[in-house]
């Protein structure tokens, strides 16, 4: 990447999804009746619990598996997961925080130029696909990183990957390919 372009490429993490276990059986009814900021979904067999700081929504199953969404960094996801475990502990469960793992990171990035999507997909045919009737973006999959980049004609990127490092590396990999297919901005 060019050093001049690095300043313009701000990768904004919009969502981090993490999972962890509490290694004990959870009574969802007790959590629903005694917990704070809780939505009980008996038809699905889970409880949704929301935290305000960090802003996180957790899906809690009776098996003790918990999925946290809504964090904006890996550290914030871990902090929120630990706070959720503490909340469950205060409700009387014998919680032990374990198996924490960040499973998905969603980020957005904006290129300082627009992109010819048809040229981009022709140049990167096996990895890139573009179906304008189905979705307005071209999809570029990087199997080695397990990352997917959605490229819009405006130059906006939506990147999903297993962690923050993979997302940053995906943007670095796709940038030179996008530079080849850029179109001049209209004034």
Question: What structural keywords apply?
Answer:
single chain; 187 residues; alpha+beta; 10-stranded antiparallel beta sheet; two-stranded antiparallel ribbon; elongated; disordered N terminus
What does this 3D model show about the protein?
With 187 residues, the protein is α+β, with helices and mostly antiparallel strands. It is built from 5 helices and 12 strands. The protein has helices at residues 3-8, 28-34, 74-90, 117-123, 164-180, and strands at 12-21, 38-41, 46-51, 56-61, 65-71, 98-110, 114-115, 128-130, 138-142, 147-151, 156-161, 182-183. Strands 2-3-4-5-1-6-11-10-9-8 form a 10-stranded antiparallel sheet, covered by helices on one side. Strand 10 (147-151) and strand 11 form a beta hairpin. The two termini are 26 Å apart. 24% of the residues are buried. Mean pLDDT is 91; it is low at 1-6.
Cα(first) to Cα(last) distance is 26 Å
How many helices in DSSP terms? 5
Fraction in beta strands? 35-45%
Give the number of DSSP strands.
Answer: 12
């Amino acid at each position: 990447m060019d050093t001049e372009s690095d300043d313009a490429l701000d990768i904004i993490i919009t969502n981090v999804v993490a999972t962890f276990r509490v290694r004990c059986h959870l009574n969802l009814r007790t959590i629903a009746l005694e917990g704070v900021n809780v939505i009980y979904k008996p038809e699905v067999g889970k409880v949704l619990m929301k935290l305000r700081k960090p802003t996180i929504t957790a899906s809690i199953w009776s098996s003790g598996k918990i999925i946290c969404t809504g964090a904006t960094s890996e550290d914030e996801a871990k902090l929120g997961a630990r706070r959720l475990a503490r909340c469950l502990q205060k409700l009387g469960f014998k919680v032990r925080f374990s198996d924490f793992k960040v499973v998905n990171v969603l980020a957005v990035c904006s290129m300082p130029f627009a992109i010819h999507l048809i040229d981009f997909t022709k140049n990167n045919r096996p990895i890139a696909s573009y179906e304008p009737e189905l979705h307005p973006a071209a999809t570029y999959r990087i199997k080695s990183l397990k990352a997917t980049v959605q490229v819009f004609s405006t130059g906006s990127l939506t990147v999903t990957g297993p962690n923050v490092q993979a997302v940053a590396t995906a943007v670095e990999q796709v940038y030179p390919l996008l530079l080849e297919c850029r179109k001049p901005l209209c004034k």
